[in-house]
Amino acid sequence: MAEPCQVDFYVLADADQSAERLACRLALMAWEQGYTAMLLTGSEQQARQIDDLLWESPPDRFLPHGRAGDDGPEAVTVGTADELTAGCGDVIINLSPDPVPEPGRFRRLLEFVPANDRERRRSREKFRHYRDQGLEPASHSIGRQ
């Protein structure tokens, strides 16, 4: 039997912290550990912004990445929920406002808890969603970046 999906919530300490920048760092870490990753976005506009950010981050390195649906496999892909498939990555880094459907298809799922109240409520709903799926999410406090 396959291992259950590991779900981790990264709790941002203040509103100045960027979930997008942290997501790029986590994608780099996944790649360095030999995993593939998908940065799941809530919109096509956000996907373009993340793609641009990956060209800048980290400034001294290149992280091989591409858009979902591009030719050839990439270590890191950027896409929307419509492009989420079981084979799109070992690690799903969710920047979308919705929980990942059928999270058990993936090895690892990373979520973010922004500092503002509205988005924290949404994150709590995601946390409950994953618990209802039989998963045990963990949370990690992230200090200032």
Account of the protein in words:
The structure is a single chain. This protein starts with 5 loop residues before the first strand and ends with a strand. It has a single domain, classed as 3-Layer(aba) Sandwich (Rossmann fold). It is α/β, with parallel strands linked by helices and 145 residues long.
Name a few traits of the molecule:
145 residues; alpha/beta; Rossmann fold; 30% helix; globular
Mean pLDDT: 89
CATH architecture: 3-Layer(aba) Sandwich
Main pleated-sheet profile: 7 strands, parallel
End-to-end separation: 38 Å
The portion of residues assigned to helices is 25-40%
Number of domains: 1
How large, in whole angstroms, is the Cα Rg?
14 Å
**Widest beta sheet: strand line-up:** 3-4-2-5-6-1-7
Region (Disordered): 118-145
EC number: 2.7.7.7
Protein name: DNA polymerase III subunit chi
GO molecular function: DNA binding; DNA-directed DNA polymerase activity
List the helices and strands and how they pair.
Layout (H helix, E strand, L loop, with lengths): L5 E7 L6 H14 L4 E5 L2 H13 L8 E3 L8 E5 L10 E4 L13 E6 L3 H16 L5 E5 L3
